[in-house]
Carbohydrate sulfotransferase
Amino acid sequence: MTKARLLRLSVVLVSIFMILLIIVYWDNVGTAHFYLHTSFSRPHSPGAIAAGEDWDALPDVDEFLAKLLSSSLKQNSSMPRKTEQLLVQGSNKPVVSNLEENVRGYDWSTHKDRNSLDQEKLQVERQRTLREFCANSSFTFPTKERSFDDIPNYELNHLIVDDRHGVIYCYVPKVACTNWKRVMIVLSESLLDQGVPYRNPLDIPREHVHNTSTHLTFNKFWRRYGKFSRHLMKIKLKKYTKFLFVRDPFVRLISAFRSKFELENEEFYRRFAIPMLKLYSNHTNLPTSVSEAFGAGLKVSFSDFIQYLLDPRTERMAPFNEHWRQVYRLCHPCQIDYDFIGKLETLDEDAAYLLQLLKVDRLLRFPPSYRNRTASSWEDNWFAKIPLPWRQQLYKLYEADFVLFGYPKPENLLKD
């Protein structure tokens, strides 16, 4: 009897110890601080999602995690919220003279005459177009048919998560991503200025905005959650509000070229400009610094840039840089069901409407856009000296982005 009692007591103690270990583990990885404040549900109509609602059709592990998260929400509903991300100190204000931050380019108009009904219809149409072409078996492009589980972790680094408000943003470079990252920093309180979270997006210095340690992205989940990473991603993708902003693909390329090769950029000169100048302009013995190169009149031409994009060797050596990588490769729109699709061409209206839907429009406003940003009307001039076969190849390279996001085929550039 004594041995049996000791055995039972040992089992009880071990069980208690294991429960305590599990509690400590989950607290360490931050699960107790998930906030599922999704502002509107799929497919069309806005509406808050209750944290305790039934999470149907989830696998066993997902269901367990879902219940755990819901339980944590109830237990912490009266406690101050804590950001899940690492808080980074940053006290420097942005430099006013920064070329890309020059206040003269800002449009400070409030646009209070927006029609919310029109915006809602616009979203329905954009999402319908995306879903139809993702489901259309006759329209194909690389990676279209793979599942979310097939996406390598390193390809998920553009999905930024704000657990405080239940928001996931896929950022696309050259589509107002700097200011959207600023908004995500303010919402998630992931950056401190002298011990206090930033409240005004424009106060956040540019160098901190693009510091990867500032943002919680999907590709960081493996370090935080280990084998539960994909399960947690799926739960968040199901419950959180997911959005992205896109742009006419050819105009985005022009903007990327202007930003990275017409301005002095040491990193892009060494990584990209030197190889382009050697391969496509037959230059040798190039200067080692961008300032010397610019002083000698050695600059990458737009033609060099297009040749680089079309050269099969480019992709074999490394994936496209994020500034000209296709949106379907950055944000996986056929694997992720986005709740909101914004466009740079309607940035002011789309941004204001999105912040209203997220119910954060009283906390902040989206930083005003640039009046002098690259215009669609510039396409004809920029592509005038690009041979027709190159333009046609380039369109095929970016065709999925044109089609999925409803941009018209640039027929004037693709015919004699």
Remarks:
- The CA atoms of residues 93 and 205 lie 6 Å apart.
- The radius of gyration is 24 Å.
- The chain has 17 helices and seven strands.
- The beta strands are 88-89, 159-162, 167-170, 191-193, 196-197, 241-246, 340-343.
